[in-house]
Amino acid sequence: MSKWINKDLFNQFANQKKQEKDAPSGGGMMRSDMVWRTPEKGTADRAKVYEGRFLVDPKGVFYKKFYYHMFQVGDKWQFFLCPKTFGFDEYCDLCTVTSKLYMGDSSDKKSAYQFKRKEKFVGNFYIVSDPRDAENDEKVGGTVKLYEFPGKVEVKLKEQITDTQNGLGPAIFDPGPDGFNFILKVGATKKDRNGNIWPDYGLSDFSRRSGALGTEKEINDIMASTYDIDEYIQSRERPEEDIMSVLKQLMFEDLVKSDRKMAASLKSDAIDDDIPDFDKKGKVEILENQGSDEVPFDTGDEVIDTDELLKQLDDI
């Protein structure tokens, strides 16, 4: 070995590397490098307009749903991919916590709302235009990003996919001349009874005209830059010690102890977290936005959408 290298230090470093988990094959890129920054909403009178094309990933996957839990511990936001993303027979500590808290008093019910499972969808999206490019040095127009979109956007895709008579079908994923762009219009609702303002996707729709994203070579280059959706979702998983550390901080260890043992032996989870929404006082009520996956978090002076917080989690 070279005199410039300390053999003992190298061996220590080699052992350290052997113990590390391999990075995902996506190259270990930061989330912010892969994921389109959450489209910002406009106003109730004027929506912000974005345009792009949904694309299949390298394995031919169109898009996928994933579940997650997102909540605040102290001054830090925590994001955990829910194991139920991979099947509802998978055990999830946070789903168990949510269910057991909901069976408690009004204060516990309020806490359950913060920890409950939420859903999103993710797919490859070629960005034709993003109005924020005019204000930013790093422009995203003309690039492929992963788009994490809410159920209200997925409804628009599902309509075209399942309507065999009038829907566009696979053309909504076609980068060629027969493909159709998606015009994402993000407005804002009026304040609900709790003073919350929500993104409004109601005017979003697919273009009336088809068109290619470029020449055949340009399209090949675009398709070569798409991301593996399964790999991305798996990359959002965190080690078990992370969730255990958070459960300890929240003093929730006892809530999951027995269910963990049962899940380990039966590989099943009978406890779910499909709880109704409720107000800040913990009183059960039917919210105007019930069933939405755009659940806001009340941080005191302002309500922050979970989408806006995801961009803070790249270093997790």
Task: List strands and helices in order, with pairings.
Blueprint: H1 7-19, H2 31-34, E1 48-55, E2 63-73, E3 76-81, H3 93-102, H4 106-115, E4 118-129, E5 143-149, H5 151-162, E6 180-188, E7 199-200, E8 205-210, H6 216-224, H7 229-235, H8 240-250, H9 253-266, E9 296-298, E10 303-305, H10 306-310
Antiparallel strand pairs: 1-4, 1-6, 2-3, 2-4, 4-5, 6-7, 6-8, 9-10
Helix pairs in contact: 3-4, 3-9
Number of domains: 1
Number of helices: 10
Secondary-structure element series: HHEEEHHEEHEEEHHHHEEH
Runs with pLDDT <50, length 5+?
Answer: 21-27, 279-316
Q: What is the number of strand segments?
A: 10
Name the features.
Replication Fork Single-Stranded DNA Binding Protein; 8-stranded antiparallel β-sheet; alpha+beta; disordered C terminus; two-stranded antiparallel sheet; 316 residues
Summarize the structure.
This protein has helices at 7-19, 31-34, 93-102, 106-115, 151-162, 216-224, 229-235, 240-250, 253-266, 306-310, and strands at 48-55, 63-73, 76-81, 118-129, 143-149, 180-188, 199-200, 205-210, 296-298, 303-305.
What would your notes on this structure say?
It is built from ten helices and ten strands. It is α+β, with helices and mostly antiparallel strands and 316 residues long. It has a single domain, classed as Replication Fork Single-Stranded DNA Binding Protein (Alpha-Beta Complex). The strands form two sheets. Strands 1, 2, 3, 4, 5, 6, 7 and 8 form an eight-stranded antiparallel β-sheet that branches. The chain has a two-stranded antiparallel sheet with strand order 9-10. A hairpin with a 2-residue loop joins strand 2 and strand 3. The longest helix has 14 residues. It is globular and about 60 Å long. The C terminus is likely disordered.
